[in-house]
Structures are given as structure tokens and as C-alpha cells.
Design goal:
Length: 98
Amino acid sequence: MDSIDAPDRYVSFKGIDCEGNSRRIIDRLYMHIDDPAKTNAFWERFRAKLAVAEDPLKRQADGLCLLCSNIYYIADLFEEHDDEEGLTMLRRLEDECC
């Protein structure tokens, strides 16, 4: 796909799977924070926010919003644990959906 055919969030979100991309990042994030050696109070609170985000009747923000507003913390976590695939996925989410 060349740059002319690449999806552009500023024109349209058509063709961009923001929900799927955010779900994959959340799954990747859980891979790290489910490990007691990698989590801390921040990530435990974030986990609670994600749980609320799953419930459309209770949420103040959906998963995508939570990811976009905490992108730098997530990037730090992925960098700290040498998760290049997670970083690549996160950059794509930020470029296309945030």
C-alpha cells in the first residue's frame, strides 16, 4: 500500500480498524501487566479503568480513548520490556486512530 492508498484518519476513518487495533494493544498490555513482576499501582488502576471501559453503561471512556490518553506510559512499558512488536502496534494505533 503506497501513501496515496494508505488510510488517513484526518480524511476518514474508513478502512482503519481502530477497535481491532485497540483490542490487540489491550491484549498485549495485559500480557505484561498480568505478570506480577511487571505491574505496579499505576497499571493496576489502569486495569480497573479498562474493566469499566468494557461496560458501555458504566464507562466514561472506551478502550481506544484510554489507550490514546496514556500512549506514552504504554510505550514506556513496552520499551522497558523490549517489546518491539507492541511498540510497532502502538505507533500504528497512534498514527491511525488517536
